[in-house]
Design brief:
Order of helices and strands: HHHH
Number of helices: 4
Shape: rod-shaped
Number of strands: 0
Largest sheet: none
Helix content: 55-70%
Distance between the termini: 76 Å
Length: 90
């Protein structure tokens, strides 16, 4: 194969890789289409478990409890628990 042909193939490959990297790097993740279910709409035992975890400062555990009860995404669960923790009295 002629050296000039090899150079063109390598250049084309570099351009293709650059295009793919920039295309996938700039991809925007869409927002969640559904707002999270408020903690107040969950059954009372689940609310109590979330409130207990929040009172002990275990926010991650509260998020896990919420996700188990609702099958919500991590973002939705974090939003719902943040709203619940802001509304609680210290």
């Amino acid at each position: 194969m002629h050296p000039f042909t090899k150079l063109l193939l390598i250049l084309a490959l570099v351009v293709l890789v650059f295009w793919l990297v920039t295309r996938f790097r700039d991809r925007h993740v869409p927002d969640d289409p559904m707002p999270p279910v408020p903690v107040d709409d969950l059954p009372q035992p689940v609310q109590d478990s979330i409130d207990h975890a929040l009172s002990e400062g275990r926010t991650i555990n509260a998020i896990k409890i919420y996700r188990d009860a609702t099958n919500a995404s991590l973002v939705q669960a974090k939003q719902a628990i943040d709203v619940r923790s802001w509304g609680r009295k210290p």
